[in-house]
Q: What sequence folds into this?
DNA sequence: CAGTATCCTCATTGATACTG
DNA sequence: CAGTATCAATGAGGATACTG
């Protein structure tokens, strides 16, 4: 296999992921951020309330959950529905667009979980 | 830090990314880190030398490229081959395992690029 | 319940210099 | 060429307290 020569034009045509200016990088960062992907995957199983998400996604803080949900809502991946009751009741659901990204993210996460044993066993120091 | 009380055994048994103890979360972080995914995608087109990767992935520093490559090598996704010559010649290639993850990451990036217009047009402030 | 507001820590990253 | 070493800066993220 040889190192292949790739022109700038070819790079741009293949995709703008290698470019820092393209907004696609931002979206990619959102869905692959520390919590973004987990929120998307969590919502795949249906509508969740804020506190339900917090319990499900271990280790996430209130702040980061709120922030992540806002970003994903901005991107049109998550729909937020607030019921005007006391105490407050807010539901989060994936939009059709969100379901699609979530599926891609989940495919990645699933692959990792499926192959986790194989991966870990190859790591240095693995007892195997 | 850990506001919920879930035993370690419980989390490990779930074996899911939602557990902050499960190693799968670390692997997920590696391949979705700022540079991890880009390195994987870059290597999909074949073997690359260190400097070739640096040129291809615009904006990455030597330090971060070296660090990212080491992590991906530890995970068994990237194979490093050093030829004992002067000046040094080192080649990086995806392992079979690495090719599989890379495909998933690429699928995600591709989806975003394909749907970028749709996503952006729904965002607040879009001229549409 | 579902957040905000504030403050603060520390991990990630970058710049620069150096080396086998 | 392919890194490592060191230091500095940024900002993502966490703890806590408070509110509609």
A:
């Amino acid at each position: 296999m040889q190192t292949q020569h790739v022109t700038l034009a070819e790079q741009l045509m293949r995709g703008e992921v290698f470019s820092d200016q393209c907004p696609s990088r931002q979206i990619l960062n959102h869905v692959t951020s520390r919590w973004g992907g987990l929120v998307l995957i969590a919502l795949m199983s249906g509508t969740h309330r804020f506190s339900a998400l917090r319990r499900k996604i271990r280790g996430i803080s209130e702040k980061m959950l709120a922030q992540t949900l806002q970003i994903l809502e901005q991107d049109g991946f998550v729909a937020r529905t607030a019921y005007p009751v006391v105490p407050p009741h807010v539901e989060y659901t994936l939009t059709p667009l969100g379901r699609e990204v979530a599926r891609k993210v989940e495919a990645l996460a699933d692959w990792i979980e499926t192959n986790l044993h194989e991966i870990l066993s190859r790591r240095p120091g693995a007892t195997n």
Q: What stands out?
A: Chain B is about 55% helix and 10% strand. The helical segments of chain B are 8-14, 23-31, 36-43, 50-56, 62-74, 96-122. The two ends of chain B are 42 Å apart (CA to CA). Confidence is low (pLDDT under 50) at residues 1-5 of chain B.
